[in-house]
């Protein structure tokens, strides 16, 4: 169905020839692909069949297409080599994005599997994922009778999934929500985007943790908010340091990103009091607390909240896979209608077969089983990292931040003599990917050290990875 127009110069056959030739040379038509039959193209262009045949003959004479009797005309197997394929690019253009977006660029992928010892943060181990079960569930949905394929669905998402998430989050995290309260999103980031759009006015202040989660900061800023970077101490976000002008606070109370500290109950209460007194909203990002290694989890802010001041955000990126893009939000009733409308205006409702498969995955107990299985594996990796960080050369330079859940640990420097950004750079030359704490901070003056993820590194590689980091410290 190649697009051919008769605009331009030259006789009709020459114009058709030129466009097909260009399409072959720049790779839109690939070797082996069939050109439209001359009769069809002639009808489409309202020209005689001879005109099209003439164009095809010229292409054949140049060796870029071959005719096969009774089968049609095909792009030649070696019509274009990779070196001759011309990239076809959109024009550069002079239009600029608006002021909020002009300085925002896409973030580079983190480690993307380039290194042998990958302590990258935030990625689960895909090799542990039950692909066979998932394939069965997705395949089951890909039938005419399983879904209403011809129509757009409820912006809140697949009904079965909303119910399954309400039960799952209620059981596992004591989140108070019915199926109607759940809005299924394309990951937590999408949930943050929806909430920010429906509550923020341009120039509003959003308080974020320092250090904190850069994609959330960048999002709020791109939507026109001012950021207030509020420090985090051993009890989590320092509520007393939230500036007066703040309207929204974004926090990761179960497992502070990136330090890992759980927010104390006293702080949780103080934050809810702040919200009630200042008419503020709290966004609670509970992104990876399903992996729990010790102790009992504290109540989420959402379940302590009696005033409708908390939006709870969950993600399936860690317990399932980030590539599936599945997450959800639970908004207080006062925001629900706006969140549903924003969800609808932003992509309508995500992919239903995937959502339906996740509903079954949860309902059949497969999610709970998967989380139990990977938690055992991650516990082993985590224990090795914790041990390695608390002894020897690293133990003298770093102090582990106490944490009980999640997919990474952080260790802060015991003094300021080491440049941890330089350590990370040197480690990378020796096949180790690791992030300094500063990578996640807005300022360059706070505590530094390292954040080590264990989603990607097999347990047997942890010790050698840490040894290489210790070598990098010695040289930095
Ligand atoms: C603090 C935080 N929030 C949310 C997410 C997950 O986001 P998403 O569900 O968009 O993949 C991550 C992933 O690394 C994270 O670190």
Description:
The chain is α/β, with parallel strands linked by helices and 476 residues long. The protein is 39% helix and 15% strand. It is built from 16 helices and 16 strands. The chain has an eight-stranded mixed beta sheet, sandwiched between helices. The longest helix has 25 residues, at 366-390. The protein is globular and about 85 Å long. The termini are far apart. The structure holds pyridoxal-5'-phosphate (PLP). Pyridoxal-5'-phosphate is lined by residues 122, 187-189, 213, 252, 257, 285, 287, 315, 317, 322, 327.
State the main characteristics:
476 residues; alpha/beta; 16 helices; 16 strands; 15% strand; binds pyridoxal-5'-phosphate
Q: State the shape.
A: globular
Ligands in the model, by name, code or SMILES, are: pyridoxal-5'-phosphate
Oligomer: single chain
Q: Which value, in Å, is the CA radius of gyration?
A: 28 Å
The side-by-side strand order for the widest beta sheet comes to 4-11-10-9-8-5-6-7
Q: Roughly what fraction of the amino acids lie in strands?
A: 5-15%
Low-confidence stretches: none
Mean pLDDT comes to 94
Query: Strand count, sense and closure of the main sheet?
Result: 8 strands, mixed
Helices and strands: which structural class?
alpha/beta
Distance between the termini: 59 Å
Q: Got a strand count?
A: 16
The number of helical segments is: 16
């Amino acid at each position: 169905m190649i697009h051919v127009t008769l605009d331009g110069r030259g006789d009709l056959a020459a114009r058709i020839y030129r466009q097909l030739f260009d399409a072959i040379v720049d790779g839109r038509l690939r070797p082996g692909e069939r050109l439209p039959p001359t009769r069809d193209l002639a009808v489409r262009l309202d020209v005689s069949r001879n005109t099209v045949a003439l164009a095809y003959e010229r292409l054949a004479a140049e060796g870029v297409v071959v005719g096969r009797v009774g089968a049609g005309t095909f792009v030649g197997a070696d019509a274009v080599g990779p070196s001759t394929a011309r990239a076809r690019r959109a024009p550069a253009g002079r239009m600029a994005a608006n002021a909020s977006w002009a300085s925002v660029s896409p973030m580079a992928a983190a480690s993307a599997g380039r290194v042998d010892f990958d302590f990258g943060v935030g990625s689960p181990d895909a090799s542990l994922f039950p692909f066979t079960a998932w394939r069965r569930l997705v395949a089951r949905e890909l039938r005419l009778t399983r879904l209403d394929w011809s129509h757009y669905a409820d912006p809140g998402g697949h009904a079965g999934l909303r119910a399954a998430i309400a039960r799952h989050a209620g059981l596992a995290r004591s989140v108070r929500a019915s199926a109607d309260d759940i809005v299924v999103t394309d990951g937590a980031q999408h949930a943050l985007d929806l909430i920010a759009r429906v509550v923020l006015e341009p120039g509003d202040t959003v308080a974020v943790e320092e250090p904190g989660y850069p994609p959330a900061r960048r999002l709020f800023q791109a939507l026109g908010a001012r950021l207030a970077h509020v420090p985090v101490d051993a009890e989590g976000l320092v509520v007393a340091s939230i500036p007066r002008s703040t309207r929204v606070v974004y926090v990761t109370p179960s497992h502070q990103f990136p330090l890992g500290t759980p927010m104390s109950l006293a702080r949780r209460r103080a934050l809810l009091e702040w919200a009630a007194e200042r008419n503020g909203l709290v966004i609670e990002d509970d992104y990876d607390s399903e992996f729990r290694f010790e102790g009992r989890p504290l109540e989420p802010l959402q379940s302590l909240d009696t005033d409708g001041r908390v939006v709870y955000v969950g993600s399936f990126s860690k317990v399932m896979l980030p590539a599936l893009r599945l997450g959800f939000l639970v908004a207080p009733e006062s925001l629900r209608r706006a969140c549903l409308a924003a969800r609808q205006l932003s992509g309508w409702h995500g992919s239903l077969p995937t959502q339906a498969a996740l509903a079954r995955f949860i309902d059949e107990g497969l999610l709970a089983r998967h989380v139990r299985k990977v938690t055992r594996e991650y516990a082993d990796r985590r224990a090795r990292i914790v041990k390695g960080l608390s002894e020897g050369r690293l133990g003298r330079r770093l102090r582990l931040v106490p944490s009980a859940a999640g997919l990474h640990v952080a260790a802060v420097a015991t003094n300021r003599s080491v440049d941890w950004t330089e350590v990370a750079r040197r480690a990378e030359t020796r096949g180790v990917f690791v992030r300094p704490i500063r990578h996640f901070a807005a300022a360059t003056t706070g505590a530094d050290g390292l954040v080590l993820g264990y989603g990607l590194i097999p347990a047997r590689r942890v010790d050698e990875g840490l040894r290489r980091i210790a070598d990098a410290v010695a040289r930095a």
